[in-house]
Amino acid sequence: MGGCRRSLLLLGFMFVIMAYYQWDMLPQKRAERIHQRQELRKQSLREMCAAEEAFSEGKRSLHDMSNGELRNLIVDDKHGIIYCYIPKVGCTNWKRVFFVLKQGEPYPDPMSIEGEMVHVPNMVPLLNSFPRTEMKAKLKHYTKFLFVRDPFVRLISAYRDKMLGNQKYFYENFGWKILRLYGNQSAPHLAPGIRPSFYNFIQYLVDPRTEMNEPFEPHWKQMHRLCHPCLIKYDFVGHQETLQEDAEHILKTLMLEDDIKFPPSYENMTSTTSVLDWFRTVPLEDRRKLYKIYEKDFKLFGYRKPSELLDG
Q: pTM to 2 decimals?
């Protein structure tokens, strides 16, 4: 009996040791997984940029870019980082992080910062506010990162937020125009419950006249046109689909993981089935036109072509 008890105790002790060892290895395995994922993302980006000069739209360096084209790059000089923000890809929370970094230690909790406040101009330092020589030096020496998202899922998010949301600016500047052109509406006021349908929104995007009149609004502008990944060599390419893990990894790399917690994302991720549901009202021809508009984003950032939406 005593030998049996000793064997059980020994077995239990071995299980504890193994569990402790596996637990101790978890952070290391997670870091290795993130590193491997990053290498694949960056390699894919490099290969696509090398294969298709069209991705850089005829530009070869910073000299070919206007200050306006660099308006989405946020700088933190203390930590030597540059972040290119893309609307509808966790940018409010990243702007909160950069805002608290600017405040200095002890850093406030990013969640204590009002989301609307960080979108006010000049709340965070932008790269294009510096002289060209400084811009070039920062782009060369600082750690640069961006976050991207499945292009069609991003469009759905933009539609839900800006077209269905009760936002006067977007209704007056875009919603009303879309209703008038594609929704057979004529009342020029914000009528309760009257909003462009998702199909109306897609019609607006695929209409060649839209961008002939003015550039796409940033919430639905192509991601590569906001962040220029074939001209700027990013050190980290985060995905919305792995946002929390990627964000924590960046903060850890900057040795800020004990000082700043990246705000949790409360937005429900849109599933493939949900994407299919959204596009059910969109004719096949318009789906294909839409894909052509965002094809470079799909290819550059490693998102698969949504064949289930595009094959007749």
A: 0.87
